[in-house]
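During the second year of the project, the team shifted from modelling isolated chains to modelling whole assemblies. The rationale, set out in the original proposal, was that interfaces cannot be judged from single-chain predictions alone. As a representative example for this report, we include one of the complexes processed in the last quarter. Its constituent sequences, exactly as entered into the pipeline, are reproduced here:
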Amino acid sequence: MAIKRRNKRAVKLDDSIRTNQVSNNSIQFRVLNENQCERLYNAVLEVMENVGMQIHHKGAVELLRNAGCWVEDDGITVKIPSHVVKKAIASSPSRIVLSNRNKKRKLFLERNNAYFGPGPTLLNFIDVNTGERRPVVKNDVLNTAKVVDALPNIDFCMSLANISDCTSDLADVHEVHAMLQNTTKPIVTWAFDRDNLDTIIKMFEVVAGGEKELQMNPNVLIYSEPTTPFVHTYEAVDKLLYLAEKGLPQNYTPAVQAGATGPATRAGTVIVGAVDTLAGLVISQLKNPGAPFICGGVITNMDMKTTVMCYGSPEFAVMHAATVDLFKYLNIPTFSTAGCTDSCILDEQVGIDQAITIYTAALSGGNIIHDVGYMDGGMVGSLEALCMGDEIIGEVRSIMRGVRVDDEALGLDVIEKVGPGGHFLNEKHTMDNFRKEFWYPETIERSNYEDWKNSGSLTYRQKLNIRAKKILEEHQPQKLTDDIIEQLDILVEEAEKRCKK
Amino acid sequence: MSELYEQIAESVVNGMADEVENLVQKAINQGMKPKEIINNGLIVGMNEVGELFKNFEMFVPEVLISSQAMNKGMEIVKPLLKEGDVQKAGKAVFATARGDLHDIGKKLVIMMMESSGYEVIDLGVDVKPEEIIQAVKEHNPNIVGMSSMLTTTMPAMKETIELLKENDLYGNLKVMIGGAPVTEKYADEIDASYSNNASAAIELANRLISCMQAV
Ligand code: B12
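Output from the structure prediction step:
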């Protein structure tokens, strides 16, 4: 029998040769252009050099002094000349890769790659079974991790909790203990101080199989926080130095409120936030040049009527985008915020705030975008809100791809074949493309009225609740081995003993 | 009531310092009593500001500008006052609890209290209970205000109140507390009073002061 080979040649992609083509592979968006970024950056350098900052950590002050910074007689106030900042930015890596728990490299924090996940340290939780608002407990973290693990558009895990039913000084440690067990996705988290941080990192090292293993394929990113404007506490800097030394990825996230801890202008507030996060970068690079570092934070405004820190304002959206532009200009991976709201309950406002902030954050391409599922300005978390965010991110992801323009996508052949009065339902071209080109929702309603009624007349909120509960019932996150779990338990016990002393 | 008083009150509400200054001077020139200029003009304006802010009809910076306008007027009247003509609303010592660094909320409450005529001594952030006791001994305030934004720092407020009691200071003053994780219930448990925002804090302070005067 003569076998005929089908794939003799390389595929000819286009019928005509088109030279010098430039096409958009995604939607285009920018808040600040090059020139504006440069102006903002120079302003940031000016503030660092002229206004300076308080650094309540002797070790860090010495590092800065030796690098050529000016330290005032109080031993705390430090002014950082521009050349020191520039050198630090130059040694800071332009890309960081986060792996999952199985060391698969997953999140490429570089250029405009945007990844979404929940936020940390909420006081309360909306109970998925009763709908009641109550203090957040460790079990909520287990549930959050499980839901994160299952949701297709959530890329990393945060706890949505500041656990109330454990030793309060170890809430951070217990969060990690819970998260590591219920998700393989990378974890973004925090610590009260160096001791707790050490316990937390040991937990990750146990899971990774060693210190070097974790460094090579980190599934953790830790944030600490400056006290905006321009104050760096001992604990914050101490954690920062610890992580720099360890060579583990970290971010240093200011929470700036325009009009209160920042000026009442967008540019001014972006500058204040950038100064605070860059100060962290400088210290980290002085400690260990090349230490992975991410810049950005929560950049928003204070509502001047209610005095809350806004988690869902237009200024929030645009100032985060501008901050991302600025750090991209400096070639530093970025941290941003979206998917959150000031609404106190799960209502229409959650949808509005999430949609606008997620859409803007995705457009601007921040690398680690956190706080999906945050409600009430950072006071309460909800699995339903997290599921809503997942759906919105999915939809936004589809928009971001823009419109593919090539021969197949133009579809001239199939259009000709179907011709006037025909239809495309039956065509191979349709089969080949509809899954790739169209997005399909999990909870968004698209049935007609009769069908919707017959399937239970569910509201969107009910559907989110059903989705969350279904995941909790059915999803089986990959388990850690008993041996590793035992080692994690021991680390928590040791921390408990240390705290009792 | 004189039209001039009304104009003064209106200028305070609109935050027009220069106008307040002119009008107050005019009132003095016309022989109006300093005490009445304050009570029927400046304070009336500032009370309206408080009301507007509480109803979310006024913005924080506007409140502060109004308060500056009022103070401009006060500066002119003050030297003319007789002993006992006006009293300070009260004196307060404020602090963010030990271990806690959140301070914007507390600063806001303090500014609002100052706008309402309180003298406030701010001890800063991360203030130890002993330091608060020390300050109370030194300043002898009517009110101690404490802010805590972390569940881990709330116990420091309890500790402070216990120390106030041990030092026989608790009976002479009122304690008010606030901050995101703090609740009415928690305040009750530790023998303090609670309010959830800056304008409610002023009302609370006023209530506490009048309670003390009634005793
Ligand atoms: C901004 C912020 C910060 C800033 C603070 C900067 C600064 N200069 O203040 C920074 C980044 C430094 C910070 C750090 C931390 N934070 Co913080 N932070 C916040 C955030 C987002 C907003 C607070 C704020 O400024 N609100 C605006 C002001 C105007 O409102 P307010 O403070 O509530 O004050 C009003 C009322 O409460 C009341 N009030 C306040 N004080 C008083 C006092 C009296 C007497 C009265 C009557 C009334 C009153 O009136 C005020 C005006 O209306 C809150 C979340 C939230 N929504 O509250 C978290 C929050 C308070 N932080 C939290 C945490 C966990 C931390 C950290 C531990 C995190 C970390 N990784 O290290 C550290 C702790 C540092 C420390 N030792 O204190 C958690 C607390 C959870 C818990 N269970 O305790 C919160 C709730 C978490 C969150 N979801 O983000 N934080």
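The interface with chain B takes residues 123, 162, 164, 168-169, 171, 192, 227, 231, 233, 257, 259-261, 264, 302, 304-307, 379 of chain A (CB under 8 Å). The domain at 89-400 of chain A is CATH 3.20.20.480 (TIM Barrel).
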